[in-house]
Structures are given as C-alpha cells and as structure tokens.
C-alpha cells in the first residue's frame, strides 16, 4: 500500500507539473488572445442618433444616414454657439443603467472622416453615477472625453486610458479632487463628435464600427493567480515534507525505544543467566562458582584476603534419615528452609555457599571467632525454634576457623572442614573451632 504522505506528495508533484504547463500557456494566451470585444455598429441593437448645437442656440445641423454597413453623420458646422458641434450618439442604456466599459483597454475605430479644414474628432463616454447623476439630466452624467486628430486611414486604435473626465463637468458638479478620476463602469452613451475645427464647413463622419477591446483576465490578475498558485503549491509541498520528516522521526524514535526495551530485556535475561550460573537453584545460596566470584573480588592476585574473616563449614545432622523417612522432596524443603534461616540470621555481607549435598560454607567478613561463635549460637537457636516439615527437629554441626589477613583461603576451608569432622565425631549439633 502506498503511504498517505507519498500519495499527497504525488498529488503535489502533479499540481506542479500542471502549473508548469499552464503558466506559459496562460501567459501566452493572455498576451495574444483571451480578448473580449464590445462592438458598436449598424449591426447591433444600440440605438444611434445625431444631435447638434441648435438646442444650445447654435446653428449647426446634423443628419444621420443609415447605410447597410455604416452610419453616416453629415454635419453642416455653422458659427452660432461658442463651441459648435454635431455628434453621433450610441445609447447603451436607460434610467441610469449602462455598460461597464472600464474592463476594456483600447478602442478600435473603423470610420472615415471628411471635412474641409481641420480633422479632429472627440470621443465622449458618459457615465451614470448616482452620487452626481440624475435620470433625465444628461449633463449630470460624468463626462469622460478625449479629442484627437482623425487619422487618414479608416481603421485606428486609441487606448481607453487617454479618456479623461472633462474639466467643465468637474467644476459644474463640485467634484472633490479624489473623485476626478475617469470612471467608465456604467457608461450610458458613446458619442463621436466633431472636434475643435473651424465652423462654416461640411463634415462627414462615417462609422462602420467602434470596438472596445480588452482581456477577459488582465495580466495583473493572471500573474497574481499564478503566483498565488505557485506559492500555494510550494507551501503544500513544504508542509507535506515537514509532516513526512516528523513522522519518520517519530517512527525512528519508536524503533529506538523498541530496541532499547529489547536491550533492557536482554540485559535482564543475561543478568538472570549470570546469577543462575552463580546460585544454587534449590536454596538460593551461592554455588562454588559463585564463591569463586566472591573470592575473586576479595582476594589479591596471590590468593589472600587482607582482612580477618570467619569461615564456617556446616553440615545438617542425619540428613540421610530425612530423605529415607520422608522422601527426597521433604529433604529438599528442609535444605531450602535451612538456607533461609541462615540468611535471616546473618549479615547481608556474609556469604552462604552450598558446598555440596547438605554441606554449606559461611564466610563472615570482618568477624573474629568470638563474634562468629555468638552468631552460630543464635543460628542453632533459630534452627531449634524453626517450624520444620513433618514436625522434624533439625540440627547442624559447625566447624569454625578464622581466616587471618594474608592467609590462604583454601587452607582455612580445610581447617574448618577438619573442625566440622570433629563436631560430628563429638556428638553433632555443636561448634568446633580450629
Ligand atoms: N533431598 C536432598 N538430599 C540430598 C541432597 N544432596 C544430598 N542429599 C542427601 O543427603 C544425604 C547426606 O547423607 P550423609 O552424608 O550420610 O550424612 P548425614 O545423613 O547428614 O549424616 P551426618 O552428616 O553424619 O550427620 C544423602 O542421603 C544425600 O543423598 C539434595 O539436594 N536434596
């Protein structure tokens, strides 16, 4: 099964791949295409009319001829009004509802101009804004305009941003400075007007089409989207990588913890095995290997102990009878309790060793013979009061000697063994000192 983070990473990689393809494709498309056009011509339904300066007490006369593929305005421009004019109007909306032309970048004209002197045209875009405009009052609409020389060729283009709000309109409506910008989001009329040319002449303006052109998505918007998408992808990839690092870290921590636990278990097991190798399984006393270990720690290389130590050899009395009369299991239980009683009476620094069968060796460091005798008397008393299996009475014989500093331990054990022999010979349940 594919891990979750690997699947997420694959998705991010696919997204990056998609963006790698989409980014240049969208930029090229935006640059060369993605164009939207709003056209004014005899072919569409926006009503076209002409008007002149006669309602301003002027004398110019405009007339409109509709041909199949053109609207022809004929203007007899006469002196009378201060700024004589004729104009061709396209009505884009009524009751304050117009068309948003602010999304277009340029205007392409297909028109012919003919006049006797001067070649100037004005483009007006009236924008209805409730803050300043009232329905029915033409002059209340923001008057955006530009005048330019009519080119000789029929088709030409001007940028939309050359159109400016007319000063007279700003003054007439006391427009605050911060609102004097060109606004074209609700254009109710597009007008082609005669420019500032001498009066007393006939002018013909033949309009085939006026096209407002723009991009469906502006380059700034597209770039913002693309940069946003790339940053999003990068952040997604980064967070996934961090998550991956975190999860691998916790997985490796878990592995380390598991190994640690196994290690500890193995150490415990090794310690158990080591202590098993040094301990008699029946009584828990040290075995001879255990004794060797203890001595190794205490002896010099030469085999001497540098302190006085009591060495006691002990042997249960008539132990064979117990086995014979009550069975081997009862004998085992007696041995177990025998060792337990001794351990309960001696110091923790004293070492009890099962020498073999029912023979035990007790090493009591820093103990002289007198103190050892006292300790063995206590021990014999404890045996006497102990609750033994089958109501038995258990006694032991002891051979005691003192290991002098620098003395060989083997010799001391031999001496204690001899003393034990004497204790047995002298009637058992007693201590003999060598
Ligand atoms: N149940 C049991 N018996 C053991 C064990 N090791 C040795 N024995 C027995 O202990 C007995 C020792 O007998 P003996 O050496 O004759 O000594 P004893 O009967 O104690 O007589 P004395 O030492 O002279 O008092 C033998 O019968 C062994 O089989 C053991 O681990 N468990």
From TrEMBL:
It comes from the Bacteria. Pfam families: GGDEF (PF00990). It catalyses: 2 GTP = 3',3'-c-di-GMP + 2 diphosphate. One of its GO terms (cellular component) is plasma membrane. Its EC number is 2.7.7.65. GO terms for molecular function: diguanylate cyclase activity. PROSITE patterns: GGDEF (PS50887). This is diguanylate cyclase. It comes from Massilia cellulosiltytica.
